[in-house]
Amino acid sequence: MDASLIPADNNFAVMAGLTAIAAAGFLLEKTKFGALLTGTVWTILLAILASNLRILPFDAPAYGFVFSYAVPVLIPLFLMKADLKRIFFETTRMTGAFLIASVATLVGVFAAVTLVPLGEWEPAVASSLTGSYVGGSVNFAPLTEMTGLAEGAPSLVSAIVAADHLASAAYLGVLAILPGIAWVAKRFITRDHTQDHTDTVEEGSEGATTPLSLALTLAYALTVVALGSWLAFLGDGLVAPEAMRDAIGVSFGDLKYVFITLLALILPTAIPGQMAKLNGGFELGVVLAFLFFGAIAAGANVAQLLSDAPLIMLFIAILVSVHGVVALVLAKFCKLSLPEILIASNAAILGATTAPALAAAKGWRDLVTPGVLVGVLGYALGTVLGTVVFGLLT
Q1: Which end of the chain has fewer CB within 10 Å, C or N?
Q2: What is the pTM of this model?
């Protein structure tokens, strides 16, 4: 009954399914009808459909491979041409957008607490989701430990994680659709976000995409991830993760993506001209991003969530819905563009890795790096705000 057409342990078949769904997303985006939803949304919808029709499994080692290996590589791939000296202004404005998104999450949390009583574990659930929806899932685990939720109600934690998969997929779809709704788009100030702050390299020149440039690009991205992961591991060896979490809320291991991001910005800022000649990284990153979207969406078991965790589903739905509305309203009055608040909201709800992925998929190239940077800010801010919420509710 629980088996899927493609077995969970058939890694090549599962990856083939994800890749086919990503390719279908790209293809549908090029059609007149498909362009209404964008390739990102099609990938999410097709992955949810495939898993709930039991073609793909809800969970598989291949999905873990995407999360553990493809996602970290996205950051250096998208930041290869990120000269901080040239994007400072955009990052400054995006920081404001992210703070607005964080406030919107807090409003959403307290609205959900007011409308959906969850009993004795309500402060812990609200705290954990605050951290998760300000800085992504990297903050979720430390807060479940701190509040006692992980030890006291592990089944509730599993329900929250499952509901979060569905909510994340649905919210990604909404974020991707909103720019195409004229009634929404015309209410925001218009800015051109398609430029990438680097000098373009003409096809056929030294910087054209070649096997050599792709090999160098992959070598660079993997080296950055390896070094960032090693620094996080080294930090955990010097300071016990539990002691550091007790002191500041996160451990060095939790900050792995921070190390990767900082390392990924060094060469593009120091030698932007040379890095600009390495083409192909952005396009490769978009492909990996679509695989990531598909892996997230495939984990959404709609029937099980509706039967096993309806209150958690309702709690998260209210939280995310209020977050979205409040963020859009505040952004309009602060004269932010629609893409800016959407990427900031993405960074808050889903974390630093999905924000640049969505920006790249939508063609907002000058929001890719700011999306990563404000997402990193969320790593630090999310745990703090989650702790504050727990204190207020208890």
Answers
A1: N
A2: 0.71
Q: Using an 8 Å Cβ cutoff, are 46 and 24 in contact? A: yes
pLDDT at position 328: 95
Structure tokens that stand for 383 in this block: 């745990």
Distance separating alpha carbons of residues 150 and 144, to the nearest angstrom: 5
pLDDT score, position 246: 67
* Mean pLDDT per 10-residue interval, the chain, length 394 residues: 84 96 90 74 87 91 88 82 65 86 96 91 91 78 75 75 80 87 88 62 52 91 93 84 67 76 85 84 85 82 76 92 95 92 91 80 84 77 84 85
Tell me if 390 sits within 8 A of 124, measured CB to CB.
Answer: yes
Scanning the chain, the segments in alpha helix (DSSP H) are 11-29, 38-52, 61-65, 71-78, 84-115, 122-135, 140-147, 149-152, 154-177, 182-185, 211-238, 241-248, 256-270, 272-275, 281-298, 302-308, 310-333, 338-350, 354-362, 368-393
Distance, CA of 241 to CA of 249 (rounded, Å): 10
CA distance 197 to 195: 6
The first and second tokens of residue 35, run together, are 């362009």
Please give the full DSSP string across 168-192, using - where no structure is assigned: HHHHHHHHHHGGG-HHHHTTSB---
| 166 in Cβ contact with 350 (< 8 Å) | no
**Residue 298 near residue 168 (C-beta atoms within 8 A):** no
Question: Helix 354-362 to helix 368-393 angle, to the nearest 10 degrees?
Answer: 140
The answer for residues whose C-beta is within 8 angstroms of residue 191's C-beta and 6 or more apart is 337, 339, 340
